[in-house]
Amino acid sequence: MPEDALTVDAPSPSLVDRLYAPVRALLHEIAKFGIVGGIAFVIDVGLFNVLLYGGVLTDRPITSKIVSVAVATTFAYFANRYWTFRHRGRTHMGREYLLFFLLNGAAMVISVSCLYVSHYILGLDSALADNISANVVGVALGTLFRFWSYRRWVFPALPDEVTDGASDGVSGSVADGVSDRVADGAQEEATDTPDRAEHLADRRAEPLTDRQAEHLADRELAERDASTPI
Question: pTM of the full predicted structure?
Answer without folding.
Answer: 0.63
